[in-house]
Amino acid sequence: MSSSVLQWVWLRHCVFATLMVLCVLGVFIMYYKPDISIPTFNIHMVSQKEGDNHSQPDTIILIWMWPFGFKFDLSCRVFGITGCHLTDDKSLYRKAHGVLFHHRDIHGDLGNMPKEPRPWFQKWVWSNAESPANSGRIPGLDHLFNLTCNYRRDADIPVPYGYLVPVTDRDQSFELPAKDKLVCWIVSNWNPNFKRVQFYNKLKNHINIDIYGKAFGQHLNNQDFPKIISSCKFYLSFENSIHTDYITEKLYNPLMMGTVPVVLGPTRQNYENYIPGDSFIHVDDFASPKELAERLLYLDQHPAEYSRYLNWREHFKVKISVLGFDHACKTCHYLENHRGYQAFHDLNKWYWG
């Protein structure tokens, strides 16, 4: 056999062997592909600030309007949330994963809402801390939002006015403040048609109540509130309107300051979703304001029984939510874990019934 023929045969074998190796390698890669991650870049990231060596977090919450004009810190680190970027910079609208709208600041004609189309990945979040009685219906909102952020437990992002957290070893033991008053009430919104005003007018006939606030021409500063509330054995935690889960700082302030709240609002069972049943007194537990007054006077004369309403402090302490701030951070935390499509319909029916 000539040398040229031998070379041709050898070349053919080499080509065949090479093809076989490539086929086997392809099958191996197809079925036994190693887990190699290729870095990707989030197209919705905020551009780096000048001099900042770290990229911005990948969840952006745009605060479209400050609630009642009240501005707050734009860092959620106090909650242990680090993957959030809160901003009021509307130029970031197209990059924001969530846009937070405060109901009481939305114009009735929706004139101050975004004019640009909503990006496909973006969630519009309706936020409101006021009760239905103190919030006007806006028909155009019915099919506008993806999520609700509200004090109600059935909201997508529930944000109660306050909550209890466990006491830790680092917490200092609580010392009960000195009490020189029996019953106190601080009230600014005085309306004779309110149930709380009507109940007070009956209760005051049977027990002495120290009353303060704007309704009586008194302008209290931030230091006055804790001084007054902590100096009373009982505080009238009367809500201005009665709705499910509408339990405001009127409850949590006296709890925090070592005073037993006497509540007028939703049912006892509703309150017990948030605080222990033996930490407060509910007006509905009594047949009349007179019977309630008699119970308070009895507890005043029996310190051991009164102190039972404060035993919960051995295990829990109070945290009070900050208007807007808690809503923004909890919205961001929610969106970190829920990126799928969501929509909310019939807002007016859900909230106003």
TrEMBL record:
Primary localisation category: Golgi
Positions in coiled-coil regions: none
Subcellular localization(s) per the UniProt record: Golgi apparatus, Golgi stack membrane; Golgi apparatus, trans-Golgi network membrane
Bilayer-spanning residue ranges: 9-32
InterPro entries: Glyco_tran_10_C, Glyco_tran_10_N, Glyco_trans_10, GT10-like_C_sf
EC number: 2.4.1.-
GO terms (BP aspect): lipid metabolic process
A Pfam family it matches: Glyco_transf_10
SUPFAM superfamilies xref list: UDP-Glycosyltransferase/glycogen phosphorylase (SSF53756)
GO molecular function: 4-galactosyl-N-acetylglucosaminide 3-alpha-L-fucosyltransferase activity
Domain Fucosyltransferase C-terminal: 177-350
Pathway(s) of this molecule: Glycolipid biosynthesis; Protein modification; protein glycosylation
Record domain Fucosyltransferase N-terminal: where: 58-162
One GO term describing the cellular component: Golgi cisterna membrane
Reaction it catalyzes: alpha-N-glycoloylneuraminosyl-(2->3)-beta-D-galactosyl-(1->4)-N-acetyl-beta-D-glucosaminyl-(1->3)-beta-D-galactosyl-(1->4)-N-acetyl-beta-D-glucosaminyl-(1->3)-beta-D-galactosyl-(1->4)-beta-D-glucosyl-(1<->1')-ceramide + GDP-beta-L-fucose = alpha-N-glycoloylneuraminosyl-(2->3)-beta-D-galactosyl-(1->4)-N-acetyl-beta-D-glucosaminyl-(1->3)-beta-D-galactosyl-(1->4)-[alpha-L-fucosyl-(1->3)]-N-acetyl-beta-D-glucosaminyl-(1->3)-beta-D-galactosyl-(1->4)-beta-D-glucosyl-(1<->1')-ceramide + GDP + H(+); a beta-D-galactosyl-(1->4)-N-acetyl-beta-D-glucosaminyl derivative + GDP-beta-L-fucose = a beta-D-galactosyl-(1->4)-[alpha-L-fucosyl-(1->3)]-N-acetyl-beta-D-glucosaminyl derivative + GDP + H(+); an N-acetyl-alpha-neuraminyl-(2->3)-beta-D-galactosyl-(1->4)-N-acetyl-beta-D-glucosaminyl derivative + GDP-beta-L-fucose = an alpha-Neu5Ac-(2->3)-beta-D-Gal-(1->4)-[alpha-L-Fuc-(1->3)]-beta-D-GlcNAc derivative + GDP + H(+); alpha-D-galactosyl-(1->3)-beta-D-galactosyl-(1->4)-N-acetyl-beta-D-glucosaminyl-(1->3)-beta-D-galactosyl-(1->4)-beta-D-glucosyl-(1<->1')-ceramide + GDP-beta-L-fucose = a neolactoside IV(3)-alpha-Gal,III(3)-alpha-Fuc-nLc4Cer + GDP + H(+)
Domain of life of the native organism: Eukaryota
Keywords attached to this entry: Disulfide bond, Glycoprotein, Glycosyltransferase, Golgi apparatus, Lipid metabolism, Membrane, Signal-anchor, Transferase, Transmembrane, Transmembrane helix
Membrane topology listed for this record: Single-pass type II membrane protein
PANTHER family according to UniProt: 4-GALACTOSYL-N-ACETYLGLUCOSAMINIDE 3-ALPHA-L-FUCOSYLTRANSFERASE 9, ALPHA- 1,3 -FUCOSYLTRANSFERASE
Quaternary organization: Homodimer.
Family, as annotated: Belongs to the glycosyltransferase 10 family.
Name of the protein in question: Fucosyltransferase
Encoding gene (name): FUT9
